Amino acid sequence: MKVIKEICDEEKILQILEKTKNPDRKTIELIFNKAKEKKGLSLEEVGYLTNLKDKELISELFNIAGKIKDEIYGERLVFFAPLYISDFCVNDCEYCNFHIRNPLKRRKLSLEEIKEETIRIIEMGHKRVLLECGEDPINNPIDYIVSAIETIYSVKTEKGNIRRVNVNISATTKEDYKKLKEVKIGTYQLFQETYHYETYKKLHKGPKSDYERQITAHIRAFEGGIDDLGIGVLFGLYDWRFEVLSLVSHSQFMDKHLGIGPHTISVPRFREAPTVTYQPAYPVSDEDFLKIIAILRVAVPYTGMILSTRERPEIRKIAFKLGISQTSAGSRTSPGGYKKFLKEEVQFEVYDLRNLEEVISDILEDKLIPSFCTACYRIGRTGENFMNLAKPGEIHKFCRPNGILTFVEYLENFAKNNGKKEIYEKGYEVVEYYLNKIDNENVRKETIKRIERIKKGERDLYF
Ligand code: SF4
Ligand code: SF4
Fold this sequence. Notes:
- It is a single chain.
- By secondary structure, the protein is of the alpha/beta class.
- The chain has two domains: 284 residues, TIM Barrel (Alpha-Beta Barrel); 70 residues.
- The protein is built from 20 helices and 13 strands.
- Strands 1, 3, 6, 7, 9, 10, 11, 12 and 13 form a nine-stranded parallel beta sheet that branches.
- The N and C termini lie far apart (44 Å).
- The structure holds iron/sulfur cluster (2 copies).
- The site of one iron/sulfur cluster has 11 residues, from strand 1, helix 16 and helix 18.
């Protein structure tokens, strides 16, 4: 079908990978110069970067990626927690523990249980969740998902509430997407898993095996009114070079045809799971994984990048500097997992088992601002409005003060009276450092005023 080819022209991508397989220094230097302009790269230029082997040039690529991340998104790292509501699934995806062959007793949370899980997540300090759910029209119909979202938003505790529900559910119809929009979801995320058609068909059985349904889902979601859309692949299923070019091609398609590029690109890497016997045909080394993040950062500079707890703390630490702007922390990957963690029930194995507070302590050492900001979507800075700020690198003017304000709220709620003196003091040190870096004097003064209001008990202040 024509549209599939427009999103990802397999033949063309393979030809580019062949043509670019021996990049010379001069070509790479020209690409680096273009990358520094933060306007993105062509598929061919991305091809050369994926074939880069020279260690010195790779290190230069990492420097450029880190600088672009700083210039566009600043020092903030936005946190979220996944919230699994049901592991019922009619699909058989080789790499996922919820595949239909797994004899696991399936679990679907009641609305009351969803409320309880939401409270647990709020009490950790989170303000954003990513709702996750298997595909099952009988057990997980769209009305159940809609009620789950309404329930999550309805929970208010002394420590706050969830202010943004992002959703990761299987590809569906425009009508279903409209329903998600009506209950005010943040980003709709759907990963292609692999853009390589033959591999996709081999690894999926059930309704998800429909490659076209999967790859065109963002178009239907957009038509249904959702304009913050996330894409991604599961690295390890096929050659990562092909997947990176496909992600960039998909981004360019969205930009051209929907008028908005992806809001986020996620970079999950295959991880083991209890009943998964599949072994990745194209395992991705740590070195290549970091290269993937750096290449995507320079190729699609305006797009947020998401890293999950599939990665070890050491890798996450480097990835945060290279280009990641959002990450999960303290995650549980099974329905009811925040109440009771059972290893056999997880969707995949988590490699960063630290709680949110530990991750916060760690990133403060690297002078990053832990952010719980949800401002943009709540004041309509979505889709084109968001892109108009992100593309010219203006969004960090909002991210910095909002990151500071939401982190101050975290410090006052979760660190002040809980014997967490160390994190409280270190936190305010970093807050002070970035307050002084707010260039606009009015914004700086207003941020200082709002910090005082938060200290006196006001909450949820943002620009
Ligand atoms: Fe089901 Fe999603 Fe797992 Fe596939 S990846 S088995 S669709 S939950
Ligand atoms: Fe995200 Fe907007 Fe907040 Fe920046 S200001 S962290 S882009 S919601």
